[in-house]
Write the structure tokens for this entry.
Amino acid sequence: MKRPAALAGLFALAVLAAGPAMARGTLNFYCSGPVEWCQEMATGFQAATGVTVAMTQKSTGEVLAQMRAEAANPRGDIWWTGQADAHLVAAEQGLTDTYRPAALDDLEPWARDLWTASGGRTVGMAGLVVGIGYNTELLAKRNLPPPACWADLLKPAYRGEIQMSNPHSSGTAYTILTILIQLQGEDGAFRFLREMHANVNSYPRSGIAPTRAVARGETGLSLGFVQGFATEKRAGFPVETVAPCEGTTLAIDAMSIVKGARNRTEARRFYDWALTPEAQALTAKAGHLHLPANRKAPPPPGSPDLSQAKLVGQDLARFGQAAERNRLLTRWDEEIGRLPR
């Protein structure tokens, strides 16, 4: 009679030892970050909790469009990364759910402020600074000076040398559009973009594409995030980056729970886990240099020095409104997207 009890005890110990390795639910994970970072987060959460993760990686605009299309029958549970303005649009349109993260009091002010501004529907997850990247070898070969300011991008010498992603699909590009508006006024920003268009060789859909294109020598200059260019430099590519002299902004990558998520419990577990110092450290493990939202998580080793950057606060209350976003994207179509190249 003692043997079954002993076996039961051993089985209980085996269950405890297996811990997170045993399946404990499912999570449908929409990710708008670089694919290697998405995979690191998916496997990290699965290892920590035993939850089976089904990951879909798409750009910010593409995930927002998919969530709108699926609103009546949501397929995703959590949306991780992607620029804050798009998450605010999703919140405004009732596509995301309210939740107070366990680590809220440990977060940087910019991460907490986003949670407050959204009515608890999204939170800051990481920070990035908009900048200009350039390929040092290409510029030297073509005898071109490195840029230092936004105004430099209008120089005729850079004709055909610049890449910027498309703001319809790329949260990075929409953020660039908004900071230009804040610095130059709306008409001034669109005038700047029209003039710069002569120097642009393409507008790829993905925000990371121009960063990787400049690193690999496919274009001389590109617009993106300083941390992204620094990551490429650390990987051995001939890339340098600059925060434009006129000013730039700290952009916020955000995280939201999908309204009506089928796996809401698992989504909340991910939300809490993703803001822990341990999960925030996976940024560096994935090879990226985003600024962590949790103050207890140190910046990734090799993070760029931004002490001299002139930072302007991003007006998320304006640019995170669906009507304003749609109006600006329509104007971009009419005044920039239709221009011949």
The first strand starts at residue 26 and ends at 31. The chain has two domains: 18-127+252-302, 128-249+321-337.
